[in-house]
Amino acid sequence: MLDLSVIRSQFPSLHRPAVFFDNPGGTQIARQSLERVNKYLLECNANHEGAFATSLASDAILEQAHHAMADFYNAASPQEIVFGNNMTTLTLHISRSIARDWRKGDEIVVTRLDHDANVTPWILAARDHGCKVSWVDFNLEDGTLDLEDLQKALARRPRLLAVGYASNALGTINPVAKIIQMAHAVGALVYVDAVQYAPHGPIDVQKLDCDFLVTSAYKFFGTHAGILYGKREILQRLFAYKVRPATNTLPGKFETGTQNHEGIAGVLGAIEYFEWLGREFGNQQVEGLLESGYQGRRLELKKAMTAMRAHEFELSRAMLASLQSVPGIKIYGLTDPNRLEERVPTFSFRLDHLHPRLVAEKLAREDIYCWDGNYYAVNVTEQLGLENDGGMVRVGAVHYNTLEEVQRLKEVLLKISAG
Q1: Is a pLDDT exceeding 70 seen at residue 285?
Q2: Residues 6 or more apart from 181 whose CB is under 8 A from it?
Q3: CA-CA distance, 206 to 184, in Å (whole number)?
Q4: What are phi and psi of 405, to 5 degrees?
């Protein structure tokens, strides 16, 4: 069980009276991540592969960060970890390499439940190569991906399936392990956007058997940096678009130009925060994780994510009940309290006739921070008929949020609803 007072002490930003329910768009930074950034900039701020002390120290930090993210993903090798500016930039970059051997008439599959960063890069690549794009719909009633529609799309043997681990708009967790098996059965590569899922649950790319998976660390208590996993044999095979002096070995093959070194150091700090949390609060989850073969830091990280997930079930249950108690509210996505394991604590809603921006502004005046609009999940709001009407209000909890904050949200929404 998490001790929230101890947890919150690890986040310097949480001393303010604000209630941070804007987490789906970016979490607050952990102390360990912030300290890594400061330490890097003060002690080893230098470019890559120099013969002098600060460059050597910088390279060592970057190597540590690759190992840390390999542990976080449970990747087979740190050479399978590629850093970049963010998920969107990494996906636009790697899509060019992946699509290089696509031919006219080939097909790819995207879903209407995804963030646009895992849709448009593939549509652009398909357009460049004369490929067809197949769309997979989601169920409007509960926000779950239509697996029958997916099966029909896969029957045409596409080259690639791009799918999200969890919806940043509706909170739905997709059955990605099953989806990956379905795609691999027809020979398709699978590119998983795990940005929204990463702060909420454990990731194991080897068990998933995904070909690619990508996250952004500012969504899991770190810095603005994107981290791509790719199977080593695929990354080695792909052509890299890079300048001539750049290395042709992994992972530098795809890390073009000078990276955001201090940001990567901050990612290392975020992993160190998870490691601390696993040691402090993850003891109840040890047995099953040991049976799965995790050891060392990989075990501590999985312990941390499992403990966080358990706490977030309580937050999800409380938030769902609180929202449902507000007159005139419509919640989009899964609202069955018996299916909380199928979602993260991200909830989108509309309140009576009020424009979502107005509701967000009213919440902000009460120091409750949240998002409104489409959050770049344009296809979701279009399918729900809300894109031209302001989208939805979105609130999202993470493990540092409290039940008292959920109660505060309920009280303010009741006040807004009452006019």
Answers
A1: no
A2: 209
A3: 14
A4: -70, -35
Question: Roughly how many angstroms between the first and final C-alpha of the chain, as a whole number?
Answer: 39
pTM: 0.97
d(CA 410, CA 368): 11
Interacting residues of 368 by C-beta distance below 8 A, sequence separation 6+: 18, 19, 21, 408, 409, 412
**C-alpha closest to that of 232 among 96, 339, 82:** 82
Q: Check residue 246 and give its pLDDT.
A: 78
H runs (alpha helix) in 176-260: 176-184, 205-208, 232-237
**The tokens 């018996």 sit on which residue?**
338
Does residue 235 surpass a pLDDT of 70? yes
Which tokens is 228 given? 């791509």
Q: What single letter denotes the amino acid at residue 253?
A: K
pLDDT at position 219 is 98
Q: How confident is the model at residue 1 (pLDDT cuts 50, 70, 90)?
A: confident
Max alpha carbon distance in the chain (Å)? 67
User: CB of 405 within 8 A of CB of 195?
Assistant: no
User: What is the mean predicted confidence (pLDDT) over 371-387?
Assistant: 97
**Radius of gyration of the CA atoms of the chain, in A:** 21
The one-letter code for the residue type at 140 is: L
Over 90: is that where the pLDDT of 282 sits? no
Mean pLDDT, rounded, for 109-122? 98
CA distance 355 to 331: 15
Contact between 349 and 331 (Cβ < 8 Å): yes
Q: CATH code for 4-26+304-417?
A: 3.90.1150.10
Mean pLDDT value across the chain: 96
Strand 346-351 and strand 392-396: pairing? antiparallel
23 pLDDT higher than 80: yes
Pick the CATH number of 32-273 from 3.20.20.150, 3.40.640.10, 3.40.50.720, 3.40.1110.10: 3.40.640.10
CA 259 – CA 249 distance, rounded (Å): 16
- Where do you find CATH 3.90.1150.10 in the chain? 4-26+304-417
E strands, 15-156, where? 19-20, 81-84, 107-111, 132-136
Angle between helix 53-73 and helix 261-281 axes, rounded to 10 deg:
50
Is residue 322 pLDDT above 90, yes or no?
Answer: yes
